[in-house]
Amino acid sequence: MVPFTFLAAVMTYAWPFARTFASNVVVMVVYGFASGTYIALMGVPVAAMGEMGELGRRMGMMNTILAIGALTGG
């Protein structure tokens, strides 16, 4: 999770320096893979915390906290 988050951050900073169409496509593809992996792996640490019977509750709590940050941020 950490390497792909770092890669997404690097692509975010590299994006303004992409001047040609080809370099923009490369940045978009690499950023897409990095952010997609981050989103897909976000629930794995929550699932590894305990019993599977409580997974829905923990995922709901995590997504509620993330939603509050998404609504108030930016």
Observed structural traits:
mainly alpha, single chain, 74 residues
Q: Which percent bin holds the helix content?
A: over 70%
- The radius of gyration computed from the alpha-carbon positions, rounded to a whole number of angstroms, is 16 Å
Structural class: mainly alpha
- Give the end-to-end Cα distance, rounded to a whole number of Å: 23 Å
Question: DSSP helix count?
Answer: 4
Strand content: under 5%
Sheet with the most strands?
A: none
The total number of structural domains is 1
Kindly state the number of beta strands.
0
**Low-pLDDT segments:** none
SSE arrangement, N to C: HHHH
Mean pLDDT: 90
Overall geometric form? elongated
Task: Give an overview in words.
This protein is mainly alpha-helical. The protein has one domain (2-72). The protein has four helices and no strands. Helix 1 (2-14) packs antiparallel against helix 2 (21-41). The two termini are 23 Å apart. The model has no long low-confidence stretch (mean pLDDT 90).
Helices and strands, with pairings:
Blueprint: H1 2-14, H2 21-41, H3 44-47, H4 55-72
Helix pairs in contact: 1-2
Describe this structure in a few short sentences.
This protein has helices at 2-14, 21-41, 44-47, 55-72.
